[in-house]
Amino acid sequence: MKINKHMLIFMLILIFFILFYSINKYIVSNEVLQTKELDMFLTVSNYTGFNVDTDAIYFGTIPPGGSGKRIIVLHNLDMNSEVLIKKEGNFVDWVVLDEDDFFMEANESKNVSIGVEVPANAEYRNYTGKLNIIFKKV
What we know:
Elements: H1 5-29, E1 32-44, E2 57-62, E3 67-76, E4 81-89, E5 95-97, E6 101-104, E7 108-117, E8 125-137
Parallel strand pairs: 1-2
Antiparallel strand pairs: 1-8, 3-7, 4-6, 4-8, 5-7
């Protein structure tokens, strides 16, 4: 069976467009819709103290071996989204999230629990970090 040169070129172009469409669809589906960065603060000392301000995630003052928990409420207003939560800072190994990769439907609200477990050998001082919340198009 003899394949025409024009037919071969047509087939290659068709394959190229199918691959391009598939790859482009994947890239667009992972588009970042919104990113929110929240500061986190913790003081380790020999007493317990509370900070209920809402402009950041304050764990207050916790003694070594102690723990604390904060809850944030996420609102997804636009469209169905994948939500990723990333931690950074000098005490992220102590931070425990109940979920860090999940799906939210449009107009859904969700409570996310953020805990901190201070090691028994933690040094008395102030610790800082950030929580990055990323909403991606599904």
